[in-house]
Amino acid sequence: MHTELRAWISDPVWRAAIVLVVTVVVAFVVRWMIHAVIGSLVRRTASNLDDEIFAATRRPLLVTLIMVGLYWVALDSLEPRVAHLTRNVLSTVAVVLWLVAALQVSSLTFKALGHRSAAKGLLQARTVPAYDMLVKVTLLALSIYVVFLVWDIDLTAWLASAGIAGIAVGFAAKDTLANLFAGLFIMADAPYKVGDYIVIEGGLRGKVTHIGMRSTRILTRDDVEITVPNSVIGNSQIINEDGGPFVHQRVRVPVSVAYGSDIDRVREVLLACPRGMELVRAAPEPRVRFREFGESGLAFELLVWIDNAEMRGALLDELNSAVYKAFAGAGIEIPYNKLDVYVKQLPR
Q1: Same domain (yes/no): 120, 225
Q2: N or C terminus of the chain with fewer C-beta within 10 Å?
Q3: Spatial separation of the C-alpha atoms in residues 194 and 260, rounded to whole Å
Q4: What is the DSSP letter of 299?
């Protein structure tokens, strides 16, 4: 009986089968223990982040334990070259599995931290994509480096080739790289955010609907979405109408009155125009400024404040209409250019 048992155990096929069975059983037992112990702990927390991280790492852990058993079988039953090749393949698969898990964990972590960070912190919801991409690129580069080490590949020649290829790619894709770096700077510096009304140098005005790594999408008042490369925005002057310490913004209505007009009456009529308009804020109160003595009239400005920059055009239309009607009713003349022609002599 002992002789048959020894012969059975010494058989590499049976020994490999035993190792595989034991490995699978141990892997599932370990997974069950982790699920029972750690899983019960993470379910008690208020946050879902630890649950999602735990779910992302369970499968790679199980597969890694099974691959360890396969490696033992390869060492015991295969010739050294084949065993070494098997080890390299299994190690590469393990690196890929844990890379995918690490990328998922990175995205989940940065997303959670972005929502929890203060509005003025470095890590915010709008800057999360930049940091997330940086970590993902680092993880990918580190994984490639580990795979090269597993396969005993000399990195010197590859690094030299990568340097030459990098220079060539840099010249060929300089516009793309410029947009990429400009996108990183926009997300880090945050001159605007999604939902803000901005004016780009050149007159383009609209609401920011998306901030990407390559471009920013702006929805104009004509309901036309325009895609602007980030490199263009990075080199342009940007007016953020929703930026600054206050949400509201001032709207100016310039108007001229004829010389000889009663300026006190002009102020009174202008201040009465925005009363009752829903778009105009009650505080700060509307005000009138006498700006200058113009070439053909006295220049005034009616200043009001509005909450929503999107309604700026509608408010200007309403105010201009009200000012014109009020001046006409009060008998206040709005000057305009006139041309007098004097005829010295009529033709004979």
Answers
A1: no
A2: C
A3: 49
A4: E
pLDDT tier, 10 (very low <50, low <70, confident <90, very high otherwise):
low
Half-sphere exposure of 185 (CA within 13 A, CB side): 12
Using CB atoms within 10 Å of the CB of residue 251, give its burial: 0 to 12 exposed, 13 to 18 middle, 19+ buried.
buried
Total domains in the fold of the chain: 3
The number of C-alpha atoms within 13 Å of 143 and in the hemisphere containing its C-beta is: 19
Chain segment 71-97, per-residue pLDDT in tens: 777 776 667 787 778 888 988 999 999
* Average pLDDT value over all residues in the chain: 80
Query: What range defines the domain where residue 195 resides?
Result: 189-240
With a cut of 50, say whether residue 57 has pLDDT above it. yes
Q: Is residue 46 in some structural domain?
A: yes
Quick one: 204 and 290 in the same domain? no
Q: Kindly state the tokens that stand for 59.
A: 């499968």
Q: Helix, strand or coil for residue 64?
A: helix
When comparing pLDDT for 55 and 290, which is higher?
Answer: 290
- For position 304, what pLDDT does the model report? 95
Long-range own/partner contacts, residues 143-147 (CB < 8 A, 24 or more apart): 143/95, 143/96, 143/99, 146/95, 147/91, 147/92, 147/95
Q: Are residues 232 and 259 in the same domain?
A: no
Higher pLDDT, 337 or 249: 249
Question: What would the two tokens of residue 145 be?
Answer: 């480096």
Q: Which residues contact 237 (CB under 8 A, 6 or more apart)?
A: 200, 201
Q: Verify that 228 and 272 share a domain, yes or no.
A: no
- State the CB neighbour count (10 A cutoff) for residue 94: 18
Question: Tokens 């509608």 — which residue?
Answer: 314
Instruction: Name the residue with higher pLDDT: 292 or 129.
Output: 292
Output the six-digit token pair for 129: 């994509």
Based on the domain organization, do 134 and 15 belong to the same domain? Answer: yes
Instruction: Give residue 213's pLDDT.
Output: 74
3 state DSSP class of 290: strand
pLDDT at 33: 75
